[in-house]
Amino acid sequence: MKEQNIIVEKTKAFALRIIKLYKYLVDEKNEYILSKQVLKSGTSIGANVKEAIRGQSKADFYSKMNIALKECSETEYWLELLNESDYITENAFDSIYSDCKEVIRILMAITKTQSNESK
Q1: How many C-alpha atoms does 115 have within 13 Å on its Cβ side?
Q2: 69 to each of 12, 25, 84, 89, 94, how far by Cα in Å?
Q3: Taking the CB of residue 28, how many other CB atoms lie within 10 A of it?
Q4: What secondary structure does DSSP assign to the chain, as a single string?
Q5: CA separation for the pair 27, 1 (Å, rounded)
Q6: What is the pLDDT along the chain (119 residues), one digit of tens a residue?
Q7: Other beta carbons within 10 Å of 35
Q8: How many Å apart are CA 96 and CA 72, to the nearest integer?
Q9: Separation between Cα atoms, residue 46 and residue 27, nearest integer Å
């Protein structure tokens, strides 16, 4: 049976939403710059989390989780720009932005826990 991990599941689901957003921006809005940025940062969150899970040490785990958190913060920025430039509707923004903030909260809790353990 597959082991469940909430951050792995949430970041993968978020990456899939980002991929759909990217397709929408390219196909419907003919937007190629911001869409590529949000695609790169939004999908790399889960990739870094996956790497962290298989990390070689606690320090490696902590480092990869911090990178995932930074990528999530970058994604948050691109989503804000897409919203404020009217490439996505307020409803679409609110939904995906809420998911992004939730992932940030989880990653912050993980990195804070790891930071406290290393002291």
Answers
A1: 8
A2: 14, 24, 23, 25, 20
A3: 9
A4: -PPP-HHHHHHHHHHHHHHHHHHHHHHHH---SHHHHHHHHHHHHHHHHHHHHT-SSHHHHHHHHHHHHHHHHHHHHHHHHHHHTTSS-HHHHHHHHHHHHHHHHHHHHHHHHHHHHT-
A5: 39
A6: 456 799 999 999 999 999 999 999 999 999 999 999 999 999 999 999 999 999 899 999 999 999 999 999 999 999 999 999 999 999 999 999 999 999 999 999 999 976 666 55
A7: 22
A8: 12
A9: 24
The count of residues in the chain is 119
Task: Please tell me the CATH code under which domain 6-117 is placed.
Answer: 1.20.1440.60
Which residue bears the tokens 């958190």?
69
Amino acid in the structure at residue 7:
I
Residue type present at position 98: S
Fill in the amino acid letter for 108. Answer: M
